[in-house]
Amino acid sequence: MRIIRFEESSGFVLAAVTDEQQVFPLPHSDFMELVRESEQQQTTPLRLVQEMMTSVQPLEKKLEDLTLLVPLEAAEVWACGVTYERSREARNYEATGGKMDSATFYDKVYDAKRPEIFFKSTAARTVGPNQDVYLRSDSNWQIPEPELGLVLTREGKIVGYTAGNDMSCRDIEGENPLYLPQAKMWRGSCSIGPSIRLAETVSDPYAFEIICRIYRDGEKVVDGSANTSQLKRKYEELVEYLVRDNSLFDGTVLLTGTCIVPPDDFTLADGDRIEIEISGIGILTNPVKSQATKNISI
Ligand code: DO4
Ligand code: MG
């Protein structure tokens, strides 16, 4: 069972639930409203949507014909780093100029009790399915980071799973780790979607298959896959550090780190198309644009 948000031709935004065959509109403005109503009714989001599906007509349009939006407008997106061996290896490569000759703080954080967690994005910087992600104009080495996202209540309860892209500049971070916020955060540097999978419908959250494909001029130039079984840490451990002495917004998204890194000689280019597919969540597709073509004001 997956929750989506979409825009009607009138411009009206609706949340909806899909069982893959059909799409049923929900009377909620977004996923967190559904979660809160289920709490008030002392039921679960799954039971609530199942009940609603018996009393509303499905849309005439199919899922693939809808204009999807971010599945929730997360006020904050946070992200974890170096939670997979592949990320540690890639970070060491960029920090040592490819020499990999000495232990780094990335080795340290991979093994440390405290995970790396950083602030990634705000609602205004985050885009949804089929919307453009943007390249930084002062970086020559940029990649998508395909990651599983945890959807959290303000108490830190995991109520859903989504897919996310932690767009990153390997040259800026590699030059100096203190540049991390600049390597990670700019307009259009984060995407989430296409849906939220209800947590209670996932029997093993350490068995998500993650696939990343990048297309250039119609050709597939990157094709990588990974599985959340390779994650070094537990989700509860990551959330525990995020909520510690912190206040969360309802619907905060926590990206759990990347295990797919394109080849070291690869950098994203204007016109590329990124696809991030997570089993049971769907395909998050984003065209890549250079900042020169963007016209926004945040
Ligand atoms: O240490 C930098 C961040 C690494 C990261 O974003 C990841 O592992 O996904
Ligand atoms: Mg990342």
Count of the domains: 2
Bulk shape:
globular
Largest sheet: 11 strands, mixed
Q: How far apart, in Å, are the first and last alpha carbons? A: 34 Å
Q: Please report which band the strand proportion falls in: under 5%, 5-15%, 15-25%, 25-35%, 35-45% or over 45%.
A: 25-35%
- Low-confidence segments, ≥5 residues, pLDDT <50? none
- The CATH topology of the largest domain corresponds to Fumarylacetoacetate hydrolase, domain 2
Question: Kindly state the mean pLDDT as a whole number?
Answer: 95
CATH classification class of the largest domain? Alpha Beta
Compressed to H and E, one letter per element, the order equals: EEEHHEEHHEEEEEEEHHEEEHEEE
Structural class: alpha+beta
Q: What is the C-alpha radius of gyration, as a whole number of Å?
A: 19 Å
| Strands, total number | 18
The second-level CATH architecture of the largest domain is Alpha-Beta Complex
Determine the CATH superfamily of the largest domain: Fumarylacetoacetase-like, C-terminal domain
Total number of helical segments?
7
Bound molecules: 2,5-dioxopentanoic acid, magnesium ion
Helix content: 10-25%
